[in-house]
């Protein structure tokens, strides 16, 4: 027998770390011929047949062990050749396949070197399950990083989920295990069977899996996500020149499963969503849609923020091709696509990333570094090159394979601070004794640098809730490199102000003015997001004080303020028509409200008009982050809760004046200074009757008088409607 007893047992127990050394075809040690071995449980007979040259010897293998270990020797050739295995089972069925253990590794030394140093930017083309044709043989190559595993096998519906059939080989010191399995195509279900460092065996889904079974099942599915025929070349080409700092950007935030339902238990598919969402977005005028996380997640109530499949769109609504169809159709309609991306944490599911090879591989071992107390999840070890590579490549993956236009990074603050939500003694300082997570900071800089350089025009957006400096400044200047940042302070102050009864507002007007003190420190988005309408916080209209009329008037004023204040507006679904209940991920939006009275349809009409005005007025988006783009006219009339300010583009050619009366009192003949003489036309009045208001106003226009007030060269008298926001654009110059 050519195998030692130890080698034989390592094959029978699937315990050999490099089974290719024993299985497959090998020259005999004395050069006299070849030996072929195969481990095929349930095979009754096995033969070798030359694949290309019939002149080479065929060979019948002898059974070395009833468990399915076969071996044969030939002296008819001394050099290894391509061959098929002819396998007969106990029912007499014959199957012919190339031997998986006859192929060279599908990853080269350069691939492994770059992955080891954290710089293999397309690692998703190497690890995971890759459809390939090798030596004319179609199949799937499997590769997974598990450096501390004792053994890794790929199991699936093709081998009865038996880890003895297809153990992978360990490629040197890289920690990567690999095997090419002929004949496996798209749709194959699989997992990795991992024998961990301490001998425990577990089934793991593929960290780089492109598609997954629907929860609660969790097998990975072999998939080709490059076959979709994209037709958005014009959009992608134009995007390279897109500058979000000088372009209209209004964002509709959406949860895929609950925007609209087909039934109480069934959501729209990706393709169905394209047919209904796109006309709706076009009618309302949003420039972008932002999806709550689309990556695969087992726990639906996490809204996608506990990701188990970072490289796969969730299969709840269709295949990866279906999601690509949705993005493609949105692009053809001129609508950008942003997705929530979650590199801050991952769940503890024992079949996913947690303790992947029996050790803390993707996370930290010490819970003071590796566990989120608030969410019950695990924290990535950003200092480990392969982990950082997993995440940075994932960002590029969504941009390349799914043409995503923006990545909104969730919970950035939890990444930046080692003591995030921790008491003294519950965290470990960095090497300098500080609380900053130095590895996470470097990861974020690298992520932003790679995304912006490899995909110009793609936005990166930080949800960062602290005063961390320079979040939206380039890494070479010491910043984190994000394009934009959610202004959580503006959101908190603004909702706090609007939730107060108007009788108390004179004492809190600084809540509306404070944001300008720090506005130019970052490139801000103004979010009224999903987080503000759940967990007992009430809907937006539910936060508003007063009777029904006042609640909706306040909501109209709030939305107009959001669109007209410096920043980029983001609104969560349902708020655009005044949803009265909190958001529920298990139910569709209450669209029936649009047929109940004037207020809901009025709010929806207002949002469409806000987007129309916003797009048409460069003053609202051209110089948002430059000091010349905004000026207060008067923010000192606390007693009347009246504020007025101006907006202009960087040339000064486009100017707007915005006036806010945030009490339920009509204020006639209210004089306000104006920056230029002439006729100023009313382009927005949230009190208009078509929005559900009382229709107080200024007959469409006012003319200036040569009377200085508010440090402006001229002024005019206005009628200020109750709980309303007005916007005026200068129409023409007049002699005064």
Describe the 3D structure:
The protein is of the alpha+beta class and 736 residues long. It has four domains: 5-102, Immunoglobulin-like; 109-221, Immunoglobulin-like; 243-261 and 294-309 and 348-407 and 425-459 and 470-616, Glycosidases (TIM Barrel, Alpha-Beta Barrel), CATH 3.20.20; 619-732, Immunoglobulin-like, CATH 2.60.40. It has 15 helices and 35 strands. The strands form eight sheets. An eight-stranded parallel beta barrel has the order 16-17-20-23-24-25-26-27. Strands 1-2-5-4-3-6-7 form a seven-stranded antiparallel beta sheet. Strands 28-29-30-35-32-33 form a six-stranded antiparallel beta sheet. A hairpin with an 8-residue loop joins strand 3 and strand 4 (59-65). The protein is elongated, with a radius of gyration of 31 Å. The termini are far apart. 49% of the residues are buried. The model has no long low-confidence stretch (mean pLDDT 95).
Name its key features:
about 725 residues; alpha+beta; Immunoglobulin-like; TIM Barrel; 4 domains; 8-stranded parallel beta barrel; 7-stranded antiparallel beta sheet; 35 strands; about 20% helix; elongated
Helical content stands at: 10-25%
Task: Output the strand order for the largest sheet.
Answer: 16-17-20-23-24-25-26-27
| Strand percent estimate | 25-35%
Task: Assign the CATH topology of the largest domain.
Answer: TIM Barrel
The CATH homologous superfamily of the largest domain corresponds to: Glycosidases
Helical stretch count?
A: 15
Query: In the residues, how many domains can be counted?
Result: 4
Q: What characterizes the major β-sheet? A: 8 strands, parallel, barrel
